[in-house]
Specification:
single chain, 4-stranded antiparallel beta sheet, 8 helices
């Protein structure tokens, strides 16, 4: 049975998905990527979606971003149906998509240029973000001069330069080494605590999902479905050492048991 949830009283969710499905049509037949998705994300909430490759996590994020349209059901952002990319929305993909012939600062300023923001204010905002993520000394470097972790930091800064209310992240740290990924988890949490933005974070990492989120939505595949959402009751700010605590271990163990029961993980 698909997961369902209700809205808290007297609130308008930032993201509300009801009985949403997505079907891709092709000459070889239709493919149902998402089925009966139900999820409510409240203002200033951090929600992780965790699931195996091919379960439709990225497709779901693209639907929220207005880059794809659901086939049936309801999808609203701040109460409005999503028919195009919503206003005040920042997106970070797994690939940083930086432009090689522009400096890091100029890459961060791309969004501000497209939206014709005041260049002086935009530049000040860009340096503020570069400092927050520890790469202000690389503002005049080019993407090919930076490590993968630094490039992804710049990508996050670009998504935040116009100060969006919501941030969508599609496995942004999936291609990074474990230590860099840990550091960026800490930096992302710091930014989120400082700004109070609503965040939807896609990952296939159980530990990462629990570390970052207020709630973790669990997805299964064939077709993609949300089968459970769990509240993460751990104090913030969270340090990496929280991963060794009994409470954290209980959450990750529960999620692994869910995937084992579905046959997605195998323990023998």
């Amino acid at each position: 049975m698909p997961y369902t949830e209700t809205n808290p009283p007297n609130t308008v969710p930032d993201i509300e998905i009801r009985d949403a499905s997505k079907v891709f049509e092709s000459d070889r037949g239709n493919v149902e990527a998402l089925s009966n998705i139900n999820l409510v994300i409240r203002p200033r909430e951090f929600v992780s979606i965790v699931g195996p490759s091919g379960c439709g996590k990225s497709t779901l994020l693209k639907c929220v971003a207005g880059l794809e349209q659901i086939t049936s059901g309801t999808l609203r952002v701040r109460g409005q149906p999503v028919t195009e990319s919503p206003d005040s929305l920042g997106i970070v993909f797994q690939r940083d998509l930086l432009v090689d012939w522009r400096t890091i600062l100029d890459n961060v300023l791309l969004v501000a240029e497209f939206k014709r923001y005041d260049p002086v204010k935009a530049r000040a905002r860009a340096f503020e973000l570069l400092s927050l993520f520890g790469i202000e000394d690389y503002a005049d470097r080019y993407p090919w001069e930076l490590s993968g972790g630094m490039r992804q930091r710049a990508s996050i800064c670009r998504a935040l330069v116009d100060d969006p209310d919501m941030l969508l992240m599609d496995e942004p740290f999936g291609a990074l080494d474990a230590m860099t990924r840990d550091q960026l988890n800490v930096e992302l949490q710091k930014m989120w605590l400082a700004t109070g933005k609503t965040a939807l974070f896609i990952t296939h990492g159980i530990t990462e999902a629990v570390f970052l989120a207020d709630r973790v939505a669990v997805m299964s595949r064939n077709p993609g479905r949300i089968i459970e959402v769990i509240d993460i009751d751990l104090p913030r700010p969270r340090h990496l050492s929280v991963r060794e605590t009994p409470g954290f271990t209980r959450y990750t163990a529960h999620l692994r048991e869910v995937f084992l029961s579905l046959g997605i993980l195998k323990d023998e």
